[in-house]
Amino acid sequence: MIRTMPLAPEEIEYVRKALGREPSREELAILEAEWSEHCSYKSTKKLLRTLPTKAPWVLVEPGRDAGAIRLFDDVALVARIESHNHPSAIDPYNGAATGIGGIIRDVLSLGAKPVLLLDSLYLGCLDDDYARWLAKGIVKGISDYGNRVGVPTAAGQTWFAKTYNKQPLVNVACIGLVHPGKILEGRVEPGDIIVLAGNTTGRDGLLGSSFASKPLSGNEEDLAAIQVGNPFLEKLLIDALQEAFKKHVLRHVKDLGGGGLATAIIETAAQNNVGFRVHLDRVHLREHDLSAVEIIVSESQERMLLVPYRDKLGELLEILDRYGVEYSVIGYFTRSKRAVFLYRGIPVADLPVELAVNPPTPRREINPLPPPPPLPKLEADIVDTLIRVLRSPRVGSKAWIYESYDWGVGGRTIGVPGAYDAAVIWLRDGTLRGFAAALHGNPRYTRLDPFRGAALSLAEAYRKVASVGAEPLAVLDNVNSGNPEKPWQHAYTAAMIEGLAWMARGLGLPVIGGNVSLYNEDSEGNMIDPVTSVLVVGRVSDVSKVFPNSLQGCGPVLLAGITEPELGGSEVAEIILGKPVGRPPKPRPSMEKRVAQLAKLLAQEQLACSAHSVGIGGVLVALAKMTIRGRRGLEVSLKTVCEKCTAFEAAFSETPARILFEVKEDKLDLVYEYAAKLGVPVKIVAMPIKQEKLVIKINNYMHQISIDTLVEAYTWAEKNLVRPKGD
Amino acid sequence: MVKYPGTNCEEETAFAVKQVAGLESSIVWHTELHWRLWDAIIIPGGFSYGDYGRAGLIASWTKSIDEIREAIDNGTPVLGICNGFQVLVEAGILPGALLANSNGSFIARWLWLRIRRPRGPWLSVATESQLVSMPIAHAEGRYYVNNLDEVRQGPWIEYLENPNGSIANLAGVSSHDGLVLGLMPHPERAAFPWQAPPGYTAGGRLIFESISQSLRNGW
């Protein structure tokens, strides 16, 4: 049964006025889905307009199911990011799995072949039983679904914090490839036939999008809003569509996502300035007693809207039959500009398309943001602190997650996740061309300072793509934040989008897509830590030249960029003080750009043999990771990292815009020359040593840690927290 | 390359056959497989029929298996990779069974393998005890067989570090003459040097170079 309509009284009044009559039940259900935050972005539309979206290489700007850029003259890269937060909090396994299914279908909608999945997970503390249950369910959901559909999950990011114990955040992204001339333009004309293909329509996921647009109630009935995934069917749908694309039978494809059938058709009609007539009783159903309203708003998975070229309907149906994909021919587009749904010949909804896609804009207010708690002076034993930071689940090994994903299917993946700062995907087209992608979000930064936090999250994803030697080209963002009706929470949403826009402009990158997930608050109305996940994609001209992030033994380690004493919002501050404290470091777009240019140059000319971007934990943690992965010793000089800092600050400061390069001994002079030309300060901060040790020089004293001890700390969390005894 | 609904490694396997072995290769829908048209048959990895029941079970019931049996009887080399190996085992073409990994979860990682008693078309250029690296990616790869001696009459491939609890570290087994080979690791993901992460090499080339040699010069 359909629950009470969450349309606001003033919204219902607006509908009455526009129609000049009482709306029907079906019409109200359509508008509820269509006007939900999830589908309409009514609270954030204005803010999102401030994002830069244009660049000469952008082929599809935000607004479609996915964005696209020209990667090479003959290759377009299609990408999309989306959250599946609310479903994953109720049913972690199915919630996360269907997130993967949906994002793949979005990329298919542009006519592309999906080749990479990424996920950004914000999970609770692993020592909490419930949080661990959620975490494992989410990982297993992604693994079971993603692995079966033949798209590799080869990159991502995982965060752990108490705020996500009951409400984890799941952001997933998909990247596809297509010839630029073959991108489906989303054009339909009156008279074009509408085919609904894929899964049967059932009662799962009823009104899922309006469910995702309010706080979780904790009621059992929320379960009815969860969709259940069928990866085998998704795989058949992918294969059938690839064949249909090849045979050129489709002029338009659209995923049935949030809001189901109603939203998919209405959005298509609105984009083309047409109307449609759809017969609901023609839809193939799972349960035969579904009412018209239920058919309209069901969010059953693995369904797509297909519009074939005029004379190609037969050929399309033949392809679908061959792969065993069910379908129904449900209606056609009209000149009338009205959205008409019929059930057994009787119109049950007849709305102007214009009305459905233009909800009245709600008034949203913003309160000033509270300042972050001040940072006290931090000082502790450096070796001891390094071990504690490596033991943090946020910093430590994530092998238990990525080894359960099939990161290699497709044969395009370079190496393994974890061995490179970004996923590097080979086009496998007879050339060595490829692309790199990294997904990052730092909720500690965004909680303390949403503007800087979002800017820094973008900067870090950018830096990771740069440090493999790729050229960053575009950005996609996923904003996760609180209740827009509460001014103090909406302030975070606004500031994150501003920070993102500012950094994207500074880096000269277009934002080609995004997603906003609001109402992430607990049952008491407290906002959970807001965060913006940022996906950056870049061009790789030769995949055999990318930098791994493990020491290869070719020479000294050079730090590019400057280091300031910036411990605000740092990992080390949270570990020592037990909570996030201080103002996050200053974002530095122009230095990020120059350091990225240096990385690209070093990769092109093969002047270095490995590289690692400095992220949470700072320089010492980054060097320790390079040591662990390469099993080669280093002697580190902290004084050289930052002269005006204390040794502790030099070790753990999280100043952005820094990359470590292991430079070829005999190429040092050339590297200095290039760095000087680009205006990037560089200095040698560590020298290779023969012993399997990390030796840290602090004020003329040598402190030694064996690599085995580092490895033990780095793998401590996954060994002790993920599988505690009796689990 | 035989494709079932749910097969998902056919394109990269076909690509490796073309590029490394220098042979023509085609992806053939399972209902359209006629063994006489082909010099060798590969069943690639994936999740045929969604792996419902057991991995490879439903595919092993299809008519394509009759074609494959006839092909083998007539001396056509057959290779099963990952899910393809599972299909060959379910069909009883290769002995033993592939059970759920001992850790209960999907595992995808690079590892080192040792080739033992190489012979036959798929391992013709390999040497005894040769070490190669390739990645695995499976949830049901724990090989089990009652009669180990029987299996060891043909060539076999073993893990240096057993990832999934397979008996005798077996990663791949073969018919006595090596005509039919099944293995869990993915040679097509280790067919080009840049696919390998630091510390590993493209060990899958061995299989493709072998079949190239074998089809041209015999084995």
Account of the protein in words:
The complex is a heterodimer of chains A (727) and B (219). Chain A is of the alpha+beta class and 727 residues long. Among the domains of chain A are: 1-34 and 185-362, Phosphoribosyl-aminoimidazole Synthetase, Chain A, domain 2; 548-727, PurM-like C-terminal domain (Phosphoribosyl-aminoimidazole Synthetase, Chain A, domain 2, Alpha-Beta Complex). Chain A is built from 26 helices and 25 strands. In chain A, helix 21 (618-630) packs across helix 25. In chain A, 62% of the residues are buried. Chain B has a seven-stranded mixed beta sheet. Chain B has a two-stranded parallel sheet with strand order 1-2. With 219 residues, chain B is an alpha/beta fold. Chain B contains five helices and eleven strands; from the N terminus they run E-H-E-E-H-E-H-E-E-E-E-H-E-E-E-H. Chain B is globular and about 40 Å long. The two termini of chain B are 21 Å apart. The longest helix of chain B has 13 residues, at 205-217. Chain B has a single domain (2-217), classed as Rossmann fold, CATH 3.40.50.880.
